């Protein structure tokens, strides 16, 4: 798991000794933390009775869902409306005979390896540091584990950005086929099943349920303003801080070098065009600090920054390519304070 991951929020299930922990791979921030979230929360709620009836109808299926899970089916919930509250209620009321790991598939930087690591840690009752390793090694540990104790993996948004590849879905399919693992997932992207070949579909062994609720997408859209739409500079900075905390300390140090160079080269309004840094200049500083061994390693870090939209390339006044962080100086200064994980 990436060093300094801050969206791991372990909790303990109350009652009963020897039970596995109830843990979350999710963002710490809530849907109401943003200005947009507060505005949406203030909108009038319509059709309250009809929505409550739909919720009650879905909750009546809980006994059937747990019956299918214990017979080696995985559950896939789809339909219009937020599904987070329904899945959370199912996990807390019904999944009481084993450990429960809830995963927010929308979390920035989330990887299948992180999910496997947490599963291995919970089942082996060891710390995360003792179970880090190659996904194949982690998968072997999980496949060789006994069917008891059970571990229920509640995956919100199996179609999340970090999981939307055939490789990631293949690993999740293998995970769901482990004797000790029971998977419950939600999905909103209608074309997501295209990533599942015959083998993955057989391993998932899905039981599909339409849980249309017309509930607001509160938890589902908490990251949209900061990471996808970039509506506000402040929210963009907060989103960047969340992403940077999931990266290694070396990656954060490289980003800090870029940021400090940009701040020293531009004015406080962020309008100066001289704040960018060339690759060779950055490589020299990284080599002096023993952050990278070669140019390929540095390019890998820069590509990761660009994938998360933390970095852009442009031509400087002399025609050389420069790397620039697309934030104004005030937001960039605050980001340098917020980017380090809590001790």
UniProtKB/TrEMBL annotation:
<feature type="domain" description="Origin recognition complex subunit 2 RecA-like">
    <location>
        <begin position="50"/>
        <end position="211"/>
    </location>
</feature>
<comment type="function">
    <text>Component of the origin recognition complex (ORC) that binds origins of replication. DNA-binding is ATP-dependent. ORC is required to assemble the pre-replication complex necessary to initiate DNA replication.</text>
</comment>
<dbReference type="Pfam" id="PF04084">
    <property type="entry name" value="RecA-like_ORC2"/>
</dbReference>
<dbReference type="Pfam" id="PF24882">
    <property type="entry name" value="WHD_ORC2"/>
</dbReference>
<dbReference type="InterPro" id="IPR007220">
    <property type="entry name" value="ORC2"/>
</dbReference>
<comment type="similarity">
    <text>Belongs to the ORC2 family.</text>
</comment>
<keyword id="KW-0235">DNA replication</keyword>
<dbReference type="InterPro" id="IPR056773">
    <property type="entry name" value="WHD_ORC2"/>
</dbReference>
<dbReference type="GO" id="GO:0005664">
    <property type="term" value="C:nuclear origin of replication recognition complex"/>
</dbReference>
<dbReference type="GO" id="GO:0006260">
    <property type="term" value="P:DNA replication"/>
</dbReference>
<comment type="subunit">
    <text>Component of the origin recognition complex (ORC).</text>
</comment>
<protein>
    <recommendedName>
        <fullName>Origin recognition complex subunit 2</fullName>
    </recommendedName>
</protein>
<keyword id="KW-0539">Nucleus</keyword>
<dbReference type="GO" id="GO:0003688">
    <property type="term" value="F:DNA replication origin binding"/>
</dbReference>
<feature type="domain" description="Origin recognition complex subunit 2 winged-helix">
    <location>
        <begin position="272"/>
        <end position="330"/>
    </location>
</feature>
<dbReference type="InterPro" id="IPR056772">
    <property type="entry name" value="RecA-like_ORC2"/>
</dbReference>
């Amino acid at each position: 798991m990436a060093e300094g991951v801050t969206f791991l929020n372990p909790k303990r299930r109350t009652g009963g000794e020897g039970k596995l922990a109830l843990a979350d791979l999710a963002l710490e921030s809530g849907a109401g933390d943003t200005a947009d979230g507060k505005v949406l929360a203030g909108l009038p709620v319509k059709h309250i009775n009809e929505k409550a009836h739909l919720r009650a109808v879905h909750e009546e299926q809980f006994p059937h869902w747990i019956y299918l899970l214990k017979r080696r089916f995985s559950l896939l919930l789809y339909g219009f409306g937020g599904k987070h509250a329904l899945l959370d209620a199912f996990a807390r009321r019904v999944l009481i005979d084993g450990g429960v790991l809830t995963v927010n598939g929308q979390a920035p930087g989330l990887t299948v390896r992180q999910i496997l690591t947490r599963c291995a840690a919970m089942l082996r009752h060891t710390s995360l540091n003792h179970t880090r390793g190659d996904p194949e090694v982690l998968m072997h540990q999980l496949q060789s584990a006994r069917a008891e104790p059970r571990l229920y993996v509640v995956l919100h948004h199996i179609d999340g950005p970090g999981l939307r590849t055939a490789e990631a879905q293949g690993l999740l399919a293998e995970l769901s086929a482990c004797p000790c693992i029971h998977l419950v997932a939600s999905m909103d992207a209608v074309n997501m099943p295209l990533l599942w070949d015959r083998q993955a579909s057989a391993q998932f062994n899905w039981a599909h349920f339409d849980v249309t609720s017309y509930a607001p997408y509160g938890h589902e859209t908490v990251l949209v303003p900061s990471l996808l739409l970039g509506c506000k500079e402040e929210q963009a900075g907060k989103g960047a801080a969340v992403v940077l905390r999931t990266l290694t300390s070396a990656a954060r140090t490289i980003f800090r070098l870029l940021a400090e160079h940009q701040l020293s080269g531009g004015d406080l309004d962020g309008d100066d065009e001289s704040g960018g840094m060339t690759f060779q200049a950055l490589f020299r500083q990284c080599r002096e600090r023993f952050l990278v061994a070669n140019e390929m390693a540095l390019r890998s870090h820069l590509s990761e920054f660009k994938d998360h939209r933390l970095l852009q390339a442009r031509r400087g006044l002399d025609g050389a390519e420069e790397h620039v962080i697309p934030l104004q100086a005030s937001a960039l200064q605050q980001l340098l304070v917020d980017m380090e994980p809590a001790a």
